Structure to design on (206 residues):
């Protein structure tokens, strides 16, 4: 959104600055070319913004996925169907995963796609391996009539363990990442603070 506004502003400025003198037709063509150049320059920034937004959605959905599995497990244990349990989650929670699942559920309810196709498409769009496993598990359980509650409980615990391992790995990388600012900023400042008073008299004597 920010880069889209910046692109529009830059294109407008380029078009405005190009109207300095000469025939009107040349002004219009020059302004159009300047606008195209400005938009092309900002295209990588828009792609980067889209990647950042997608990564934020992916992290939010991955964080909420164990809660989804818990709600589905409770709903199925209470005698609700899979669709009713999924609708219960989508109505009770207001997050990225609930919105995405609401859209997918609406698509198979109106007959645009099947349940398995909608869940698989959602998993591919978000590119979350845990969601892809959830989609395949639900599809196989509903097709073959196998019990889904125990599978979802095991999958929720597996996702929590995987998320915990990722957090622990990120924490272990923090000291390594701190070496860069420590070596470039803190250590030189400490050396100046320690050696400065000692080097002052020597420099004055020279």
């Amino acid at each position: 959104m920010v880069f889209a506004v910046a692109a529009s502003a830059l294109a407008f400025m380029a078009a405005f600055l190009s109207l300095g003198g000469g025939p009107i037709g040349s002004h219009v063509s020059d302004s159009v070319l300047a606008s195209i150049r400005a938009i092309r320059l900002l295209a990588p920034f828009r792609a980067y913004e889209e990647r950042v937004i997608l990564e934020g959605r992916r992290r939010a959905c991955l964080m909420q996925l164990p809660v989804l599995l818990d709600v589905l497990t409770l709903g199925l244990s209470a005698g609700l169907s899979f669709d009713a349990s999924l609708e219960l989650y989508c109505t009770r929670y207001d997050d990225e995963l609930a919105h995405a699942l609401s859209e997918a559920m609406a698509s198979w309810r109106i007959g645009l796609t099947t349940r398995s196709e909608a869940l698989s498409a959602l998993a591919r769009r978000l590119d979350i391996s845990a969601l892809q496993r959830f989609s395949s598990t639900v599809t196989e359980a509903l097709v073959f009539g196998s019990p889904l509650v125990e599978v979802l409980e095991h999958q929720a615990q597996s996702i929590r363990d995987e998320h915990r391992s990722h957090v622990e790995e990120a924490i272990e990388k923090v000291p390594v990442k701190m070496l860069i600012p420590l070596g470039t900023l803190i250590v030189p400042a400490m050396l100046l603070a320690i050696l400065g008073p000692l080097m002052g008299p020597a420099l004055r004597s020279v």
